[in-house]
């Protein structure tokens, strides 16, 4: 009978040992989820991440050709602010569509601005040349602008209306038809 008792307790002990790591992993996952949730709600409630119909954070940057770009100088125009990097594959994929839309609205009250982030200037300049970017492009060397806009991935595009408020935020590559429709609506 002693053998029977040992055999019965071994599976129970083994079952308890296999449940402990599972419970530990579930606790770690739950804590990580709470941490991420806390960060995201803190950013939203702190007002760091601008939302549509809020004033677009102003910025002053220097373009790759040495000119100053100040968002406030474009008040009265619709401004498309595109955050990108040369190493970002979706940025490469969207660039021809973005350039096509920029060309379509050339000569109208629409300005496109590219803001290169987390990049080196040599690679960024090569990107601008390779993809034929014709609108002003500036680097955000300190990261202050993309932090003010709450950029978490690239590409991200903000459409700022004539009054200087954010009309639309586009996460990921733009849809050229959707962006065109938005710009046409804002120009009315």
Polypeptide structure, described:
- This protein is α/β, with parallel strands linked by helices and about 190 residues long.
- It folds into two domains: about 1-45; about 60-185, Glutaredoxin, CATH 3.40.30.10.
- About 45% of the residues lie in helices and about 20% in strands.
- It has five helices and seven strands.
- The chain has helices spanning about 1-45, 90-105, 120-130, 145-150, 175-185, and strands at about 60, 70, 80-85, 110-115, 135-140, 155-160, 165-170.
- The strands form two sheets. A five-stranded mixed sheet has the order 5-4-3-6-7, with helices on one face.
- Helix 2 (about 90-105) links the parallel strand 3 (about 80-85) and strand 4.
- The longest helix is centred in the first third of the chain and has 45 residues, at about 1-45.
- Residues about 40-45 have low confidence and may be disordered.
Short summary:
This protein has 188 residues and is of the alpha/beta class. The protein is built from five helices and seven strands; from the N terminus they run H-E-E-E-H-E-H-E-H-E-E-H.
Strand content: 15-25%
- Report how far the terminal alpha carbons are from each other: 91 Å
Strand order across the biggest sheet? Answer: 5-4-3-6-7
* Tally of DSSP helical segments: 5
Question: Which descriptors apply to this entry?
Answer:
18% strand, 47% helix, 2 domains, Glutaredoxin, 188 residues
Fold topology:
Elements: H1 2-46, E1 60-62, E2 68-70, E3 78-84, H2 89-104, E4 110-116, H3 121-130, E5 137-139, H4 144-148, E6 156-160, E7 166-171, H5 176-187
Parallel strand pairs: 3-4, 4-5
Antiparallel strand pairs: 1-2, 3-6, 6-7
């Amino acid at each position: 009978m002693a053998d029977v008792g040992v055999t019965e307790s071994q599976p129970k002990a083994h079952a308890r040992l296999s449940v402990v790591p599972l419970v530990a992993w579930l606790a770690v996952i739950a804590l990580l989820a709470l941490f991420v949730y806390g960060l995201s709600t803190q950013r939203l409630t702190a007002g760091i991440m601008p939302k549509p119909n809020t004033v677009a954070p102003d910025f002053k940057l220097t373009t790759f050709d040495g000119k100053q770009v100040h968002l406030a100088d474009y008040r009265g125009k619709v401004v498309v602010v595109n955050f990108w990097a040369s190493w970002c594959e979706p940025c490469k994929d969207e660039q021809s569509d973005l350039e096509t839309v920029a060309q379509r609205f050339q000569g109208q009250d629409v300005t496109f601005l590219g803001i290169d982030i987390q990049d080196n200037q040599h690679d960024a300049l090569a990107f601008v040349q390779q993809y034929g970017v014709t609108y002003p492009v500036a680097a955000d060397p300190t990261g202050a602008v993309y932090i003010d806009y709450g950029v978490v991935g690239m590409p991200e595009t903000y459409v700022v209306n004539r009054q200087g408020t954010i009309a639309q935020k586009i996460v990921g590559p733009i849809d050229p038809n959707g962006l065109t429709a938005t710009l046409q609506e804002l120009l009315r």
